[in-house]
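FORM 7B: Structural annotation worksheet

SECTION A. Query
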Amino acid sequence: MTQLTTVDTNNFAAMAKAMGIAHEKTSSSSSSLARLRINHAPIMGTAEVNGKSVNVEVVEGGAYKLEIPDGPTHYASSIKMRPFMQRFMHKRFIQGDAKNPNRYVKSVMADTLDIDLKDNNGGFNCGKPAGFIKDWKALPKSQQDLLKSIKRVRVVFGEVELINPVNEKGEAVEVEPTPFIWEIDNRDAFKEIGSSFTTLAKMQRLPIQHIITANTDERTIPTGAKYYVPVASLDVTTVIELTEKDQVLFGDFMSWVDNYNNYIINAWAEKANADMEDEDVDVVDDLVDIEVDEEEVA
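SECTION B. Predicted structure
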């Protein structure tokens, strides 16, 4: 008896695997995604006032910034974001010194943070131990500082439309809806954007079929410095019908994550193997010391 299988056009990843095209290379480059973030400091420029040049804000602080690879950077006070998918990862910034540059330790991306994630430093979770920490105050300060430096990151992939975009000079520009990646590591921003995904999950809706409009809100830290967090508004009344272009773009995002994870896993293996070799050398040195001591005793 022939078994019939329904072709689900709304599940590209599953159908691509079933049809044997999951590992076919797409035309888009995995590194060509535009990066979305919030620009916390204003961009200053000059303007002529009463015949004199004065410094003015040409792009206000709190604007969204869209960085195009090998291209211009655009800014907008508000955006319309169509999220295709989200992933989670850990990230830790390491301050450089005279001999070493600044760098990030990053983990692989997954659909949950409840598992150990390999990182490019040869460890897991960028140094964060597994499980719940019962007594924070009992930890040594060095351990507390390490844990504070490790960020949990919500990574959003989708298409973004900038509302009334401008360039770095504050001049109006035209920008088409653009595929993007947004690494959200601020705690408040993590929760704010996550609430839209939670709402859609409870309604059994797909993120790709809805629009999130986002502005920013100003916050101040005790030193007086200002920073900004997103303020999101989810539209659940309008449901977007998927197109073939959406299917292709979704596949591109999946490939991007696969390529990124492969890079991190390879870096993990290389660093872990190097650390193991160093440990083996230390063990051999210890054995040599023991043998020498025994010979001296004999």
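SECTION C. Observations
The longest strand covers residues 78-94. Residues 26-30 have pLDDT under 50 and may be disordered.

SECTION D. Sign-off
Analyst initials: ____
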